[in-house]
């Protein structure tokens, strides 16, 4: 893919009651890139995601995505531009099968009851089969989502987001609470998805970040403290200071 910026934040700041949660933050993501965002609690990671998705409006600065100024759009409009966000806690419909959860998402429906009046088209069936393969859930297609493991629920929700064909996927701490095997499978899954989509992933688990093998941005006090390969960033004395609290 080309090297042009898909997402760009420039000089972004936001304060809550006089406290600067994001402070002159600049960050750029290339088309096709996957980036890990790390940083101690309170560094501003969640607020940054909130700004990108339009949940929080910055006080100053520029946020651009695929040539659009995001600061002038609301959350729904930003989602329609092709930004999908996966929150930490999975929100699948537990009483529905894995397959029906994916169907609901493809149809853009919000209520399981709406499925009573909806038919799966051949085109949707094909797309669901592909999503089941991508998310490693094909053997569980007919299982109720409530019966999946925690990790599998997270993969299902990622599949539901992919059904909306986002260009950019924002993923918040996807491996929190996962087993080691699920964590490594999630790294594989995100690498697969990254073949066709850009990804920003906020994560504390450094083994997972290592397994992703992507560039890392360290946030601290609402700005970028360091950026680069994990090895270089984790050897940076400023990063060590922040993490060890010296
Ligand atoms: P992280 O996700 O890196 O842990 P956050 O983005 O959640 O950090 O928070 C950054 C800082 O902004 C924290 O000090 C937090 O208390 C503060 N903050 C975040 N959202 C709000 C809010 N809505 N009102 C007041 N303070 C907030």
UniProtKB/TrEMBL annotation:
InterPro entries according to UniProt: ABC_AA/LPS_Transport, ABC_transporter-like_ATP-bd, ABC_transptr_urea_ATP-bd_UrtD, BCA_ABC_TP_C, P-loop_NTPase
Family matches, as CDD domains: ABC_Mj1267_LivG_branched
GO molecular function: ATP binding; ATP hydrolysis activity
One Pfam family here: BCA_ABC_TP_C
GO cellular component assignments: plasma membrane
Domain of life: Bacteria
Keywords per UniProt: ATP-binding, Nucleotide-binding, Transport
PANTHER family: CONSERVED COMPONENT OF ABC TRANSPORTER FOR NATURAL AMINO ACIDS-RELATED, HIGH-AFFINITY BRANCHED-CHAIN AMINO ACID TRANSPORT ATP-BINDING PROTEIN
The protein's name: Urea ABC transporter ATP-binding protein UrtD
Source species of the chain: Gluconacetobacter azotocaptans
């Amino acid at each position: 893919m080309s090297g042009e910026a898909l997402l760009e934040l420039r000089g972004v700041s936001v304060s809550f009651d006089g406290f600067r949660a994001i402070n002159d933050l600049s960050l750029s993501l290339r088309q096709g890139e996957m980036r890990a965002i790390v940083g101690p609690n309170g560094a501003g990671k969640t607020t940054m995601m909130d700004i990108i998705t339009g949940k929080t409006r910055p006080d100053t600065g520029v946020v651009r995505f695929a040539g659009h100024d995001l600061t002038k759009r609301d959350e729904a409009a930003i989602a329609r531009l092709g930004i999908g966000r996966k929150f930490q806690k999975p929100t699948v419909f537990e009483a529905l099968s894995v397959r029906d959860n994916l169907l609901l998402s493809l149809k853009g429906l919000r209520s399981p009851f709406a499925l009573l009046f909806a038919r799966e088209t051949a085109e949707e069936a094909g797309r669901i089969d592909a999503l089941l393969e991508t998310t490693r859930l094909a053997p569980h297609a007919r299982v109720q989502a409530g019966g999946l493991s925690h990790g599998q629920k997270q993969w299902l929700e990622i599949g539901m987001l992919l059904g909306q064909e986002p260009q950019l996927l924002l993923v918040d701490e996807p491996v929190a609470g996962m087993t080691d095997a699920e964590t490594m499978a999630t790294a594989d899954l995100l690498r697969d998805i990254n073949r066709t989509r850009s990804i920003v992933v906020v994560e504390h688990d450094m083994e997972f970040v290592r397994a992703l093998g992507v560039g890392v941005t360290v946030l601290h006090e609402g700005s970028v403290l360091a950026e680069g390969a994990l090895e270089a960033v984790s050897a940076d004395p400023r990063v060590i200071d922040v993490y060890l609290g010296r």
